[in-house]
Amino acid sequence: MFKFLTNRPFWVNLLVAIGIVVLLLVLLFSSLSFLTRHNKNSKVPSVTGRNVEEAKRLLESLGFDVEVQDSIYLDNAARLSVTKQQPEADAVVKNGRTVYLTINRAVAPLVEMPDLRGFSYLSAKLYLQSLGLKMGDTSYTPDIAKNAVREQKIHGRPVAPGTKVNMGTEIDFVLGSGIGNSEMNVPDLLGMTVGQAREFLATLSVSLGAVVTEAGDAVSDTENAYITRQKPMPYEILSDGSRSSNKIRSGQLLDVYISSKPPSADSAH
């Protein structure tokens, strides 16, 4: 064999060697193209929203492998429907590529009902959303804690903290109206300063509402100004001259009129 090579001119051997190298390269690239299925690509169809079995059949019929990678729960999506796919729809990939699916669970997972009594409405709503629960109906009951959760219910029945409920369940709230349940006589604030009235009303869980300066008066220090009128008044004068006490509840407001001078004895009674 070596004699055959040495008996031929060098340039002939060089050409033969180059030819062999070229042939090997052609064979190599041809085999790579076959092994990697070069230029044999497919577009991934959209299967989001389809039932998982339907999605599998479609993808496998197009030559893709399919794997369910994860499951989540969305109450606004059909059970066992595809919520996400990877690669995404319309991506161009090689034939035989695995398409990974995320599907919606068939059964809503259970979560533990928290104790939201005493929470403000907004805080309770955000807490429910963080657990995957929904806000239901709201109603009100007399209670000085305005918009605070007093009761939590499902379908009109109280639900105890720690109860297991399905994610997506609607929770109804009974909220405080901000007004107490029991009535009291309207306090007489005439002649008090605004500061004194605030302190006194705080002991009754009643607050000052509008503070209006009497016409023609100039008040420079509201807290030390005198109350000359109030609404509602402590009592009403009946037709027979008798007095009937007006009522107010905790949480309600009492409006006052003020002046830089104390009211006269006649106007205070």
TrEMBL record:
**Alphabetized SUPFAM superfamilies for the sequence:** Penicillin-binding protein 2x (pbp-2x), c-terminal domain
The protein's UniProt keywords, in alphabetical order, are: Membrane, Transmembrane, Transmembrane helix
Q: Which CDD domains does the UniProt entry name for this protein? A: PASTA_pknB
- Give the stretches traversing the membrane: 12-35
Matching entries from Gene3D superfamilies are given as:
3.30.10.20
Asked whether the UniProt record includes Manganese among its keywords, one would answer no
Key word Membrane present: yes
InterPro entries from the UniProt entry: PASTA_dom
Every PASTA domain range: 40-105, 107-177
What PROSITE patterns does the record tag this protein with?
Answer: PASTA
Q: What is the name of the protein in this document?
A: PASTA domain, binds beta-lactams
Q: What is the lineage of its organism?
A: Bacteria, Pseudomonadati, Bacteroidota, Chitinophagia, Chitinophagales
